[in-house]
Structure formats: structure tokens, C-alpha cells
Specification:
The chain is mainly α. It is 82% helix and 1% strand. The protein has helices at 15-38, 45-64, 66-89, 95-107, 115-140, 149-198, 203-214, 219-234, 238-248, 252-267, 271-331; strands at residues 9-10, 13-14.
Length: 332
């Protein structure tokens, strides 16, 4: 006789075997839960470690390249020192003049302060070189022999004046282009600052975040915000960082933002609400400028319409009729 099994059966399945299998699965799940609970890590630990490694790399790079950078600085300062000594010997160099040129260069996006002396040196040298060349060509050669005395004088005076104003015109052009690019991205930057402020970020962290987000779309604005974030991190007086931002950008809108930032830092007023109001104002201003350009468009298009479009239109409309009349007269 074969021994009969006394284990309980449900639907032909041994209950003890199923229970043993489920107990094993539960045991493995408990062991896995204990492992995950005992080996949990701080989610910021990896980021902090990466930042520390990056800081050490930067320190090593700065230490390794100190001699090279010093050599470059010496080479750069030699030319500026020679120009400075030359201008000082001629009593034409003033510190207030140098500071004014440095501010214009910062507004144009040029960070090298030693080039300010080069701009002043160019004001002195370019009229001598270009103006002297114009005097030689006008009065020393027969190139402008058929010109009158008034035209010759006007050419020479224009050469002297333009050569003297050339560095200032170049800086002014760069300042206008850079200010226009910054003005275009300022409302978006303020919207991002509002989001960062409502998210609980500090002002310097908000500026750094906005500079990273808008760096590709608006590189000029991203650069300025990044520099402001750096200055907010190491300057003792945070007001100086905001004032430097207003000094580096020749825009009334930036001055309004800086005033708002200074007031919020001083009096503790809500930053997000103030920036939201400024953002709405700047967007309305941008829309008004677009409407103003659209309103000027008919007046601007009048001359091209008269010179280029209407003659072609008349030829297309009246040309076939004129040909038919000519053929009728010839055949008649």
C-alpha cells in the first residue's frame, strides 16, 4: 500500500508548500528593507562631494597657472604703463577721465581696465596719424587739386574730428547694442527671479540660477547676473553689488530693479511682489515700443513705395494697355 499524504490541499496545490514559499519571499523582502534602511544616504552628499572636488580642482588649476597668469599680466601692463607714462609726461591724463572711460568700457562689456588708457591714448594719437595723413593727401599731393579751398578744409577738419571721436563712437555703439540685448531679456529674467524668490531661494542664488537659465538666450544679461551673484557672495556690503550692476548697464530699467533690490534688502519688503510689478511694467514698455515702431512704419515705407513699388505697379497695369494702343495706331 502507498502512504497517503496528510497535507491539506486547495485546488490540488499543497498549502504547506505555498506557505513556505511566501514565508521565504517575506523574509527576503524584510532583509532588503533592513538593508535599504541601514544604508540610506543623504541625497545632497553626492552633490556636496562633487562641489568639493570641483573646488579642489579649481584651486589646483589656479596654483598651477599663477606664474603664467602673472607673466601675462606683466606683459599686458607694460604697454598700458608705457602709454600711461607718455600721457602723464604730456599732462593730459586725469584719473577722473580714466574712471569715466572705465565705466563706459564696463557698459560695453569690456572688463580689462587697463584698456582705458589705450582709449585716451587713441584720442591723442589717431588725430595726429589720420589727420596728418589727410593734410598730406589734400595739401601735399594733387589728389584733390580740383577741389575748392572750402572742401579741402572740410575734409581735413572732418578727418581730425572723426579720428578724435572714433574711440568714443566705437564704445557708444557697443553700449547701445549691449543695452538693447539686455533690455530684450529683462522681463523674462524678472519673471524667473520672481519664481526663484517664491521658491525660497536667496537673492544671490536666484541671480545665479537666472544667469544659468538665460545664459544661452541672452548671454549679456546672463553674464551680468552671474557677476552680480558672485559679488553678492563675497562683498561685505551687498548694496555695492547692486550698485555695480547699475553702473555696468546703461539702462533706466536696470536702475529701477537695483533700487527695488536695495529697498528689499534694507527694509525687508516682499521681493516677489515688487519684481512682479516691475516685470509687468517692462513687458508693457516693450509692447509700447513695438506699437511705436509699427506706427512709424507707414511713414518709413512712403519713400520706398514711391520710388520702387509704384513705378513697377504702373508698368504692370499700364504696360499692356500702352502696347495695345501702340499696335492699334500702327495698324490703323
Amino acid at each position: 500500500m502507498q502512504p497517503t499524504s496528510t497535507a491539506p490541499m486547495i485546488l490540488g496545490v499543497d498549502v504547506l508548500w505555498v506557505a513556505t514559499l511566501l514565508a521565504g519571499v517575506a523574509t527576503l523582502a524584510m532583509l532588503y528593507a533592513l538593508y535599504m534602511a541601514t544604508t540610506v544616504r543623504n541625497p545632497m552628499a553626492k552633490r556636496v562631494k562633487a562641489l568639493n572636488e570641483r573646488r579642489e580642482q579649481l584651486k589646483a588649476g589656479i596654483t598651477a597657472s599663477t606664474s603664467k597668469r602673472r607673466a601675462k599680466l606683466v606683459q599686458r601692463s607694460d604697454a598700458s604703463d608705457r602709454m600711461r607714462n607718455f600721457l602723464s609726461s604730456m599732462k593730459v591724463l586725469q584719473e577722473s577721465q580714466v574712471k569715466a572711460v572705465q565705466i563706459k568700457m564696463l557698459q560695453a562689456g569690456i572688463r580689462r581696465k587697463e584698456w582705458a588708457v589705450g582709449v585716451i591714448f587713441g584720442r591723442l594719437v589717431l588725430p595726429i596719424v589720420i589727420g596728418g595723413l589727410a593734410v598730406f593727401l589734400v595739401y601735399g599731393t594733387d589728389m584733390f587739386a580740383d577741389w575748392g579751398s572750402l572742401k579741402k578744409y572740410g575734409l581735413v577738419a572732418g578727418a581730425f574730428l572723426l579720428s578724435y571721436k572714433a574711440p568714443d563712437i566705437y564704445l557708444k555703439n557697443k553700449i547701445q547694442k549691449r543695452s538693447a540685448a539686455i533690455r530684450k531679456g529683462l522681463p523674462d529674467a524678472l519673471d524667473l527671479l520672481v519664481i526663484c524668490a517664491e521658491a525660497g531661494l536667496t537673492v544671490d542664488a536666484a541671480f545665479g540660477r537666472v544667469s544659468r537659465e538665460l545664459g544661452k538666450a541672452y548671454p549679456e544679461l546672463g553674464e551680468e547676473f552671474s557677476l552680480t551673484a558672485i559679488e553678492l557672495g563675497f562683498l561685505t556690503d551687498r548694496r555695492n553689488a547692486f550698485e555695480n550692476l547699475a553702473m555696468r548697464i546703461d539702462l533706466d530699467a536696470i536702475r529701477g530693479v537695483v533700487t527695488t533690490m536695495i529697498q528689499t534688502e534694507k527694509y525687508g519688503t516682499p521681493l516677489a511682489s515688487a519684481l512682479r510689478v516691475l516685470s509687468a511694467e517692462f513687458r508693457n514698455e516693450r509692447m509700447m515700443r513695438a506699437e511705436e515702431k509699427a506706427a512709424r512704419l507707414p511713414a518709413i515705407m512712403t519713400i520706398p513705395l514711391i520710388l520702387f513699388i509704384l513705378p513697377v505697379l504702373f508698368i504692370v497695369i499700364l504696360g499692356p494697355a500702352a502696347c495695345d494702343i501702340n499696335d492699334a495706331l500702327l495698324t490703323g
